[in-house]
Amino acid sequence: MNLDLSFYFAIFLRRLHYFIVIFALVTAASVAAALLLPPVYSSSALLLLEGSRIPDALAAPTVQAAAMEKFQTVENRLMTRANLIDIARRNQVFENVETMSPDQTADAMRGNTRINKSTGRGEATTMWIEFQGESGEIAAAVVGDYVQFILDYDLASRTASAESTLEFFENEVNRLDAELDRMSARILDFQQKNADALPSTLTFRLGQQTLLQGRLATIENDIATLKDQKARMIAIFQSTGQISNATTAGQTPEAQQLDALRSQLSDMLAVFAPSNPKVRVLQQKIAQLEEVVKAQLPGDGSANQAATMLDVQLADLDTRIALAEEQRAKLIDELAVLQDTIDRTPANQVVLDALVRDQANIQQQYDAAVARRSQAAAGERIQVLEQGERISLVETPTVPDGPVSPNRTLIVAGGMLAGIVLGIAVIVLLEVLNRSVRRPKDLIDKFGITPIVTIPYIRTPSETMRRRSGFAAVLLVAIVGIPAIIYAVHIYYQPLDAIFAKVAEKLGLSL
């Protein structure tokens, strides 16, 4: 493909005014922007999260948080709307800060602030804070306020956390102590109300029950013996007219034999049934001897004396029987009361075990709370003395020697380069869109004829003057008007840096 460079150069010269106008417009705009953009000064500070100076094995800290989480919390507190507005107005960060709305002030402060956090395995956790302001003093003052806020908030949060932890465990110890007192009072009240049926005395009461049961059996045997003695005495008197305590010396041989047979009958009845032949034979002998003994009884005087002695002895036996029965009744009542306490002991054991178990649980919680209170007191002391984990300032903010932006030379050079590229692009676009016949080759291609000679368009002097006047006017507008419009926008509408920041934010760029 053959390129007619002379033709394209001629076209460029013919459309040079477009190039000059576009180049002038873009260059003038870049020069105006470079001159009108205010200088930006940057100041920064470096913060470090220091570990505890006291080993955890000696005193475990009560204020614990992940390093990055701690810095994120601090950043969120720092970037609150109220705090940013207060710092901006206190340092007069913006010229029109008093007339700016709170939202505009907060957004502008956030836009001029850069915060970078860094951490990693085996690496220190740091926070780098930068602020860009209209002057070095303002930027340094804002970063200083940022750093002071972070340090104050860190100290206040650590101290408040340690104090609240200590206060919580102190309240917990007091609560558990009161709960222990109440539980001890409940146990004591229960033991007093059930003193007769406590599990601790069950063995003693069981032994006492066995002893009383033995005594009751003895007394019942005594009562039975006394009643049997009384019945035998009455039977002897009725059969012999004598009492059992009379001496055998005054008895006849038949009476002595009768007593022996009666004693033998009593022994046999304990072994044999009344229908046994031996028992019947013995009863017949006793009946015969009773008839003989009755015939041998003395006169009425002796009989009256025996009856009187019988009454005396029977009265004595009745007294002894009544006393024994009274003792038996008391023993029965005592056994009933004792049995009732024994029956109530298992239920009391369950209740008392539950109370003691609750008391043991509360005691365990109380001991743990006391230990944790001691640990919290040590942690609170560590925070007061600033021996625990804390944020420290490594690099203080300083007033910068010069602005960091804008780079005016780069802006002007970029504008000039953009003007050149845009001017050439416009000329190329106009040439692509132009389909008119301008050279002999076009005649040959379109009409198939070969011209002998071609005559170019010749402008009159007046056309040339008008063309040059229009070009000069456009060029004057580009050189003077564009900067004037940019200046007016910067002064009366919105600063250029704010406009650029919004455009960059819309495009997702970081200036």
TrEMBL record:
Recorded superkingdom: Bacteria
Record keyword Transmembrane helix present: yes
Keywords assigned: Coiled coil, Membrane, Transmembrane, Transmembrane helix
Residue ranges that the Swiss-Prot or TrEMBL entry lists as coiled coil: 159-193, 314-341
Membrane-spanning intervals of the chain: 16-37, 410-433, 471-493
Listed PANTHER family: CAPSULAR EXOPOLYSACCHARIDE FAMILY, TYROSINE-PROTEIN KINASE
The protein's name: Lipopolysaccharide biosynthesis
UniProt organism field: Defluviimonas salinarum
Lineage of producing organism: Bacteria, Pseudomonadati, Pseudomonadota, Alphaproteobacteria, Rhodobacterales
